[in-house]
Model the fold of this input.
Amino acid sequence: MIRISDGDIGRAIVMLDKIPNGVSKAARSAINKTITGVRTDTKQEVTKRYEVKSSAVHKSITINRAKGSTLEAFAISQGRPIPLVNFKVRPKKVQRKGPRNKKISVSVKKGSATTLNNAFMAQFKSGHMGVVERKTRKRYPVRELFGPSIPKMMENKFVMGVVEDKAQVRLKKSFNHEVDRIMKGYGK
Done:
């Protein structure tokens, strides 16, 4: 959880004592700018560590902004495990049955590829491509393999640590900027 320091709030109260709701306006605006920045920082940190598209991370994060007298904002990520085919997979095409077929290599985290001995690429009737493996020794059934969900990637301690640190700095800077802006007569 990120908070505005007591010292910054005290300074804002002194500076904005003549302006009605000046401190809450400054805080609300700073919180909303910060929460938008949290989504951006999260996208950057997740895509820096995982082989996932930035747009997929962006779509999974919902922002609830500070409104009215509520001076809280949330960034919530929801999503299911992502099919392995959406990560870095080699080979990408379906191989026909044969002894010279290459084994599937998947990289979920950047710089760490894993070879899947019993997996292969398959195209379903719907046209969807996927990395699958057989459930039994028989030809069917097969099951598609999945990697982590985006919320799981965001739980990574390195990702969350960087995002929280950047958010705290951004909130302090943005709050001070908003206080100065209101003092100069903008945003009344």
Observations:
- The chain has five helices and eight strands.
- The mean pLDDT is 92.
- The radius of gyration is 24 Å.
